[in-house]
Amino acid sequence: MKVLKFGGTSVGSAQRMKEVAKLITDGEQKIVVLSAMSGTTNTLVEISDYLYKKNPEGANEIINRLEAKYKQHVNELYSTDEYKQKTQEFIKAQFDYIRSYTKDIFTLFEEKVILAQGELISTNMVTNYLQEQGVNAILLPALEFMRTDKNSEPDPVYIKEKLAAQLESLTGEYETFAAQLAERVIRNQPRKMDNTTLILIRYTPKEEQKEEENITKGENEI
Question: How many angstroms separate the CA atoms of 207 and 135, rounded?
Answer without folding.
Answer: 18
